Known about the structure:
nine-stranded mixed beta sheet; 25 strands; 16 helices; alpha/beta; binds flavin-adenine dinucleotide
Amino acid sequence: MNEAALAMHVRDDPAKAGAAGADFDVLIVGAGLSGIGAACHLVRKRPKTTFAILDARDAIGGTWDLFRYPGIRSDSDMSTFGYAFRPWNDARAIADGPSILRYLAETAQQYGVDRRIRFGHKVVGASWRSEDARWTLDVRAEGGDTLRLSCNFLFLCAGYYEYAEGYMPGWPGMERFAGRIVHPQKWPEDLRYAGKRVVVIGSGATAVTLVPAMAETAAHVVMLQRSPTYIVARPSEEAMAKKFGRWLPARLTHAILRWKNIALQLYLFRLSRRKPAAVRAGILKLAQAAVGPGIDAAKHFNPRYEPWDQRLCLVPDGDLFAALRAGKASVVTGEIETFTETGLRLTSGEELEADIIVTATGLKLRLMGGIKIEVDGKPVEVGSTTIYKSVMLSDVPNLASVFGYTNASWTLKSDLIDDYLCRLLDHMDRRGYAICTPRRGEAAITEEPTLPLTSGYIQRAKNLLPKQGTKKPWRMNQNYALDVMALRFGAIDDGALEFKRLDQASRAA
Length: 509
Ligand SMILES: Cc1cc2nc3c(=O)[nH]c(=O)nc-3n(C[C@H](O)[C@H](O)[C@H](O)COP(=O)(O)OP(=O)(O)OC[C@H]3O[C@@H](n4cnc5c(N)ncnc54)[C@H](O)[C@@H]3O)c2cc1C
């Protein structure tokens, strides 16, 4: 049976879809990129598994539905940001948000997983009972109803940030400002900025996207940053895709591009780690050439940290630099002293006049969907667990979660985690196991953070992150090649994962 036929077969069988039931083999939390990918893997590789996807929101797509600010786009190349099993067949290397959302919705439809999503289902608690080898989920449904669903394996694809609101540092005098203050996470549909003076506070991925997009029609846009970020231009189209696409099948072209981009990313990341000064100088030189002599790149594009201590910002075809060079936008590096009636005053004394101030100040990190997790009556503090193979947590049975790469496309990791999960479930089925639990034993842990970035949103929440070990399988790799070995080819029964049959668990209880 081919993949599309398989998807139809599963879709049309309500028993397999677990459509009306409350008990499932697997429950997936989150209908974003990770949750849809996970569900497609189950349909493709484990068509008999009953599962449902629960999402607190009313729409598919997570991040790609929530964020609606002007210019919203990927900053990863789409050959690696698209799923490995459903290539992104488009010459655009960087895609806009609506196209990504469409791609996710079409993927869900093609594999029949759209029918398995229960929208408006917010999971607030998950408790595991070893005796039954089951998770019971407390779910808050729309209208305030609460319900309970259960599963043998819980897969958290709940993203990494608070959906309700973004991060907003408080500044003095905000209430005095007569214009509008907007956070990109809650972009007002009625916001008109044509002909208006805009200040965007921030210099991360969101700010560098917003500034050129708004500068197209705004009177002027200022990017106000407390400190600079590394910003690198890249072509928005894959020249290779066009060239190869003429004489190679689409799948092969995609595979070549994907591996080219993976290798390039790994190479640049390693180079940044080994020769940070040279990489910094190279990035600065390119930035200076792109913005022209009127802007001092050494002041505005020369961060305090080394390349890849924080995520590098990519700008398609150098659109930000072009807006700066054309004078439609400008960059100011300085500290805000206070908001005023008409804009902002900096500690340097400089005043920035504005009709609209956009606070592109980032996200609030939230792990595991904010779900209260218990194992046999004891609460789990995620911050005191150790991550196993970047997928599971020590002493927490039958639970996996997705956290993508910080230095490459999220999807590269989520695809590998899904592969691993299917292999793990196959292994358990073959041997009649109902429970698998990572046990750390004597393995040493390290103080190194699991997410090796100094970005504000990670630093603000570092106590919530699981720990990592000094050696595999307790290390969190930021390296696709190592993860391929560990997750796609590594032994499932590696001595660190403890397996039990249901009768063993019941006897022990
Ligand atoms: C603006 C922006 C741009 C980005 N661009 C890139 C990029 O170019 N490349 C890249 O690799 N990464 C990028 N990222 C990171 C991005 O979030 C991931 O790539 C990816 O979209 C994450 O998908 P996800 O499904 O894991 O999480 P999300 O997209 O966050 O989806 C999680 C889903 O889980 C649901 N959920 C959460 N908690 C619960 C709960 N308790 N109960 C029920 N449902 C719950 C949410 O409602 C949501 O629908 C970007 C992030 C942002 C914010």
